[in-house]
Amino acid sequence: MDEKLQLVLHEAHRQFKSESVFFRVAGLTPKTWWKYKAGETAFSNIKTSTYLSITENLFTPYETMLIDEAVRATKYHCYSDVIEAFHEIKLQHVKNMLELRASIEVIIPQKEEGRPIRKTSSRIRIIQEIGNVYSNIITFEINIPPYDVPSGHKNRLNWFNDNYKECLVR
């Protein structure tokens, strides 16, 4: 299976209540989604607009860039699979971003028809500002309520360093 598709499937299952919710949110028809999953349509030949629609609902632009890094790391046997590579590379980048005074924000879950569309109750976003216009953003699902994340930059940094192994959903 294509490594990017493997990662997309993993993230769709991890983040969304169901595949049908994911492909509906991503603007795909059930037939199109099942063709990618079944390998009838090669994921490497996907239209750019479809790829963007899929990735924008699962990843930040910065994380989308990390997908290629994870695929390369897997091909060079640095990691056993692309999912492990992606999450480890994300953590390495986040640790570097936090050393450079990136901020940590808590994201309240999205709802559709009054119900959450994602599996976890909350997410955190690590933001590294670059100038006035651009920022690097990495997002993690967390398995604790948003009110359990402390406020204040230093408190959140200490909380993340002490708790990320237990709180981050892989």
UniProtKB/TrEMBL annotation:
Lineage: superkingdom: Bacteria
Protein name: Uncharacterized protein
Protein source organism: Viridibacillus soli
